[in-house]
Amino acid sequence: MSGTFAFWATIVAVGALNYLSRLSFIALFARFPMPPAMARALRFVPAAMLTAIVVPAVVFRAPGVLDLSYANPKLVAAFVAMAVAWRTRSVTASMVSGMVALWGAQWALAALAA
Amino acid sequence: MTPPLIGILPFGVVCGVAAQGTGLTAVEAVGMAMIVFSGAAQIIAMQLIAAGAPIAVILLTCLVVGLRLTMYSAAMAPHLASLPPRWRNALAFVLTDQAFAAAIRRFRTATTAGEGASYFLGTGVVLWVAWLVSNLGGYLAGNVIPAAWSLDFVVPLCFIAVLVPALDDGPARVAALAAAVAVVVLDPLPMRLSLVCGGLIGIAAGVAAARARRPRDGANP
Predict the structure, then answer these.
(1) What is the residue range of A24's domain?
(2) How many domains does chain A have?
(3) If both were cysteines, with which of B50, B189, B199, B218 could A52 make a disulfide (CB 3.0 to 4.6 Å apart)?
(4) Nearest to B210 by CA among A43, A86, A26
(5) Contact in structure between B138 and B10 (CB atoms under 8 Å)
(6) 0.95 exceeded by the pTM?
(7) What is the largest CA-CA distance in chain B?
(8) Per-residue pLDDT of chain B (221 residues; tens, 9 = 90+)
(9) Min CA distance, B88 vs chain A (Å)?
(10) Which H/E stretch holds residue B117?
C-alpha cells in the first residue's frame, strides 16, 4: 500500500480521527461535561492499550509462535526494562537497559548454542 | 520548555525507527508525523498498514488508542472556553501528552486565558517541529544501523517505559493483565483485530475491578 493514494488516505483519516479526539471537549462537546462513566473507562486506556501493543512484540518469536521461556531474548529484555522503568521512571534509562539486555541475552544464547 | 522537549524526542526517534523498519519512505514517515502528530497512533497505523489490515480496523484501533486525548481535551476545555473558536481549533491540533502536561500547569498560574493560550501555542509548535526532526532522525538512524542490532525493539521498550508507571494501582494492573492474556489468546483473529479487542477487554476488566473494589460507587459519585 506504501506510496499509493490508499496510504495517504489512511494517514489523513487517522490524523483527522486524532484531531477530532483532541477537539472533542474543547469545541465539539464544549457545553457538556464528560460523563463520569466515560471518565472511569478512559483511565484504563493507557494500561490496556499499551499492554496490547507491547505483549505481542515480546512473546511471539515469529508470527504465531509463542515463546514464554528464558530462551526468548525479547522476553528477558522486556522484564529488565520493566524493572528499570519501575525503579527509575526514566524512558531513556528503560530503553537503554532493555537494548543492552537484549544484546546480552542474544549473545548468551549464541554462546550456549555454540 | 526543556522537560517537554526531552520527553518527546525519544518517542520521535522511536517512531522514525519504526517507520524505517516497516518500509516507509522518508517522505511518508515525515508526512505521517506532520499529519498525525501522535507516536502510538503512527506506530499502530504503520504496523497495521504493513500487515494489510483494512482501513476500518486501522481507524478503529487508532480511535481506541487516541481516546486518552479526549481526557486531555476535557481537562483543557475550561481554560480555552473564553477564546475565539478559531484559536481553540488551532490549539486542539497541538494537544499532545507533553504539551498538555506543560500547559495545564501554566494555565493554573496564568492571570489571563490569553497568557496561558500563548504559552500552550508556543510549546505546541516547538514540540511539533521537534517531533518532525526526531522522526526524521530516527528514520535515518534506522537506515544506517545494521538489522542485526534489532534496533526496532526500541518500539516495545519505549511503550514499556510509559506503561509501567501507569500500573500504579490494582485496577490498572488488572486492566493490563487482562489485555495481555486477551491479546495472546486472540492472536489467531484475522486483520490484527487482536490488538483492539485485547485493549477493549483490558479496559472493561479495569472498570470491573474498580467497581468491585468500591461496590457502592454508583451511590456515592
Answers:
(1) 1-43
(2) 2
(3) B199
(4) A43
(5) no
(6) no
(7) 59
(8) 566 787 788 889 999 999 999 999 999 999 999 999 999 999 999 999 999 999 999 999 999 999 889 988 998 898 898 899 999 999 999 999 888 888 888 888 888 888 889 999 999 999 999 999 999 999 999 999 988 889 989 999 999 998 999 899 999 999 999 999 999 999 999 988 999 999 999 999 999 999 998 765 554 44
(9) 7
(10) helix B113-144
Report how far residue B25's alpha carbon sits from residue B28's, in angstroms, rounded to the nearest whole number: 5
**Chain B positions in Cβ-Cβ contact with residue A23 (cut-off 8 Å):** 73, 89, 92
Chain B, nearest residue to A59 by Cα: B184
ipTM of the complex, rounded to two decimals: 0.91
Among candidate residues B134, B52, B60, B53, the one with its CA nearest the CA of residue B96: B134
Helices and strands, counts by H and E, chain B: 11, 0
Say yes or no: A74 and A95 in one domain: yes
Query: Which residues between 104 and 143 in chain B have a beta carbon less than 8 angstroms from any beta carbon of chain A?
Result: none
Scored b (16 or more CB within 10 A) or e, A26-61 reads bbebbeeebeeeeebbbbbbbbbbbbbbbbbbbbbe
User: What is d(CA B192, CA B189) in angstroms, rounded to the nearest whole number?
Assistant: 7
Same domain, yes or no, for A21 and A52?
A: no
Beta strands A65-66 and A60-62, pairing class: antiparallel
Q: How close A82 gets to chain B, by Cα (Å)?
A: 6
Same-domain status, A48 and A38: no
Q: Are residues A25 and A63 in the same domain?
A: no
Residues A106 and A53 in one domain: yes
Residues A74 and A62 in one domain: yes
